[in-house]
Protein: XRE family transcriptional regulator
Amino acid sequence: MERDQLADFLRRRRAAIRPAEVGLADGPRRRTAGLRREEVAMLAGMSVDYVVRLEQGRSSQPSTQLLGALARALRLSDDERDHLFHLAGHRPSPAEAVARVARAGLIRMLDLLGDTPALVLSDLGEILAKNRPAVLLTGDHTRFSGDRRYTAFRWFTDPAARAIGPPDEHERHARQLVADLRAVAGRRSGDPTVTGLVERLRAASADFRRLWAEHEVEVRRADRKTFLHPRVGRVLVDCETLVTPDQRQYLLVLTPANAEARERLELLRVLGTEEFPAGTPGPPNAPGTG
Structure:
């Protein structure tokens, strides 16, 4: 571990980021060139004291999980993230692990979208990052572990996961989830991550087995969905998708489909964060999740 080089790199990357790039206000009394240490700590989910010790070269070796959180907080590129791992004495994450970390460019686009709900997903339906409007609308689903990372797995194994959408859309959404997973399985033929997920879903859910046997294939790129929010009611949105060149990550943007939906999203921003149960699903029919 190269403590001095790591400290210098972290200080310089922190100084290079403008608060607006990460959705923070750039007030008139700000004296720091970039982010404050407490802001990095908040974005990375760690203590300010640990950020201070890292930047002063006094820390113990950070874990790979902590480095991943720092990479997201500092909006590091893939090359910068690998460099961070090397300085900390770790091998960079393998390709599959990197695919589960939201790309820096997509994170910046989340920030730029402002009040428009948007999120980054893997092709298997893991929600990798959300902006605040998306969290307000659908809850925070970035901290699930194991198979619960996958929206399809939650949908088919946890009845509470379906509460975010109206019952009359459940069958269509289930079919879209399975059809999109079929497309991923074809594109990543032989990938044990994909085949393992499919086998566990087949074992866990009769509904999944029924739909998987129909061999429907469809990559969802645009759609219209209804969200049932506990505080503002029904919100009808149009879902538009941007795909990375390797088709491993998606940026999903949710725009109000009518004036009523626009008013309810504005009301939700005023009301603030709603507490969501742990089983609440991600957005219906997100690419990679249906």
